């Protein structure tokens, strides 16, 4: 049953006016308690042993019983508890709020507070914060694991996640704005930025979009991404989600905005660019030459994963003359007994790979690994021996699948898996021209995309040479004295470059 409003308009009669009682407030508080009593986990306790009867109301499933028995009940028998103000002074608890606002009482009690009422006819109550926090401990990152660097990841508790960021950025300029999103779930959503660095326009854009959300339940940060993203019909993610607090602390210092959702072990970062989806945070823990080399490998792997199978289909269907003479005999032998055209052969293997991925992801970990390895070997060998696919295409599809795994951000990896199929269809109908047409469509779509209103393909388009220092390749840190132009930060300098380059001899 939905608990949202209890205000019921009633006619004022003469007796109520004589008693000088506000019927709306009385009925609202009484109706609220009455409606919550319907739930089996709502507890009502009356302390008759105290000089003045004290009424306690709370949800057993939301409240820590140890706080009740240790910090509240032993102090309720004192004779000095004649008012709520005296109660506030006597109890050894800091967060005690006295209010008669029914909306605030509703919000607090559904978050784990205890209602204390001295007189049932009174509209004023004391709210004691005693929520039960059950959350898993901070553990190793699973999706963005790195060999070097910190080994902490976010958990499902918003307060814990904010603590992980605060201890990395212990500055008063770190600003946190919290909102309640979801008509039913009332999910806590925090917008994090650094005052004096982050562009206020970016912060206000995020805040306005979050406040404008009309949805019943927000169960994860992925809901927020889908609801506030610029282009909701694009397969490309326009905001980065990360489970690493060190990554969020780093990009906040650059001038980005972070969004954290209670109950989600991932944070959201924006505005972002297309190139950032292929930059692992581990790159910043390595030498710049090694990190740049790995980035180039990832970009090459993504292009290879998208284009290699469509090029195979296009060449075998229309462009035999492009095949080298030494390779023609190998392809002829591999396809000699295959009855299917190249497009059906490729789609069959691609779908088989996707089925293995989904089966491995949905099954328990140990079983999923076995299915992925054994299933791939069995299906690949059986399909070649049965004459359904060629061994050359099997190798190409397997390499393409491996190349797609190099994408550091999981959601972008899913996009790479998806857009291979349109390329295959275009290659079948128009050959290499179809691949080029599909490529042009993809680039045009990327040019139109924005992330929180900022260009998605920056620094490639619009071209910004200074931002290339940490894009396709990563230059040394002493070359990154300025923050990215794309973010339009209030403070553009990260550090003084002259001092960073200043080196003294040992004997000076």
Our count of helices gives 16
Any idea what the radius of gyration is?
A: 31 Å
Structural class: alpha+beta
- Helix and strand element order: HHEEHHEHEEHEEHHEHEEHHHHHHEEH
Characterize the structure shown.
The protein has 508 residues and is of the alpha+beta class. It has 3 domains: 14-129, no CATH class; 158-272, no CATH class; 287-455, no CATH class. Helices cover 44% and strands 11% of the residues. The chain has helices at residues 14-19, 23-36, 65-72, 84-90, 102-109, 158-166, 200-211, 221-228, 245-254, 288-318, 325-334, 342-362, 365-385, 391-404, 410-448, 497-501; strands at residues 42-47, 54-59, 96-99, 113-117, 125-129, 174-181, 187-194, 240-242, 257-261, 267-270, 450-451, 454-455. The strands form 3 sheets. The protein has a 5-stranded antiparallel sheet, with helices on both faces. A hairpin with a 5-residue loop joins strand 6 and strand 7 (187-194). Helix 10 runs antiparallel to helix 14 and helix 12 (342-362) crosses helix 14. Residues 1-26 have low confidence and may be disordered.
